[in-house]
Amino acid sequence: MDHIDANGLRFAYLAEGAADAPLVLMLHGFPDTAYTWDRVLPAVAAAGYRAVAPFTRGYHPTAIPADGAYDSDTLGRDALALIDALSPGKPAVLVGHDWGASAAYSAAAQGPSKLRLLITMAIPHPARIRFTPRLAWTLRHFVTLRGRNAAAKLARDDFALVDTLVRRWSPAWPDMPASETAHVKESLRHAGSAEAACGYYRAQSLRGVTGALRQKIAVPSVAFAGEHDNIEPRAYEKARHQFTASYEVVQVPGGHFMHREQPEHFVTELVRVLRDKAPA
What we know:
The chain is built from eleven helices and eight strands. By secondary structure, the protein is α/β, with parallel strands linked by helices.
């Protein structure tokens, strides 16, 4: 683990690969940490890249922002600042899962020249998501995590909600190991981190997308869709009009946590995409 300053915040991160290799920056979502990439980092490094996975703002051991800013544009600026700090003057590949995908979409809109390739996972472009009763039920955790005493509810019974959400979003993962959520629970136990995780949800507008997420994406993009995720793969096809450069949808086995459920398959596809679209 190492640390770096970016966008006015001290970030902790995991990294593998040569320091001078092309950067692949990988952003985690919720409920998760940088350790979500522990099976992906070495494979990406072995393919000739420098793979870096930060703990996003508020997730221990990254600092908690004093201003409490967790909106998508701020998260996007974090990603761009990390690219500047880790790969000065050189564009990077940006990979984002869940909230990390939202941050990555925003980063691509705000700083397209800093990205060689955008790769998102488990979240179609938010501007093209159409809410249905089924999707609203799937996203009912937003009500809990935006509400009063959200951090206390999240922490209840040793963060039992974390396990519930992972199982809900990856329903075809019956053999999820009991240790799967240990890293995120450890991070959230630190003072202020659970409140920070809920802050992402409070910062989400209920009136639709705002800021940079309203813009179309001019960066070559690839979206990974889990076959058993609660958001169906066809939703990614409907997002195609949000992209003015190339756009590919890669459907893979697994649910929301596809890279954890089916790591061998996911890594194979990810490395293929990197070599085809942003060779080292």
